[in-house]
Sequence to fold (317 residues):
Amino acid sequence: MIGSPSPGTWARPGARRVAHFVAALTLTLATVTPRAAAAQTAATAVAGPPPIRVVDIRWLADHLRDRDLVVIQVEREVTPETPRIPGARVIPYRALVVNRDGLSTELPPPDSLASLFASLGVNANSLVVVTTSYEPPMAARGVMSLDVLGHNALAFLSGGVHQWKQEGRALTTETPAVSRGTFTARPRLESVVDAAWITARQGKGLALIDTRTDEEYTGAGGRNGMPSDGHPTGARQLQWEQLFADEAHQQLLGPAALRALYANRMQPGDTLVTYCWIGYRASMTYVAARTLGLPVRFYDGSYQDWQKRGLHVEKGR
Fold:
């Protein structure tokens, strides 16, 4: 496993945006999932923060009234009519991102994120379950944000609002009464890396996970106005949809199947780094790796930053 960067390398060199994030970060997160602990395959977990939990719809229904449970539902847009799981605190995706220095979908400063989660009633002892009615990466962005801030009890809801509704469970438009929580950011500096950190370690125990489409990865074309000339040397493609067992891409694969996907893209002892175009899709491959307890880091600027810097890429596979 690659050593942790110094606090000064959290942000891209000379970029004020990361300096803001680094200055306030001091955390430790994660949660143990029995399913992940049961799987032992070629991709082996290493010492570090406990894994993020994975919970299913039945578990959430059984625990919905637990005193320390906080359900956060991340949505593309939020209106007074937005359906939610009873008791869920609904936030728009845009609350989890900022545009900075020509890059979109960057992590907000840690104090800003911490204030957001405190406003949702999150305390140090809260078990936070994150979900969405949209694509799972939207929920994963919320999970990843709490993870890099260091929350110690965190879960991804497999099946999401989609399955909750399919099973005929109640949804509501009622906004729950929430008291402000005491959540405080304790950032994990090593969780977010920049281009300089990556280029210094390519070919040295680093496994780059490219969470983009075939056309983006190979350089054959872009996606929705996002151009691509290929991928950084050594990067291996893993699309977020591959992490799910159903056609709707809502049911997360079991730990053995997930572990096999990562094992095929890394060597024992490697540190994973996930990226996509702007960090939306890579949030999902980051979270899936964290549920397995794998050593993984998040490239916040992703390919948009890599391309802007004119760094080397390769075409094809």
Observations:
- The first helix runs from residue 16 to 24.
- Residues 159 and 251 are 5 Å apart (CA to CA).
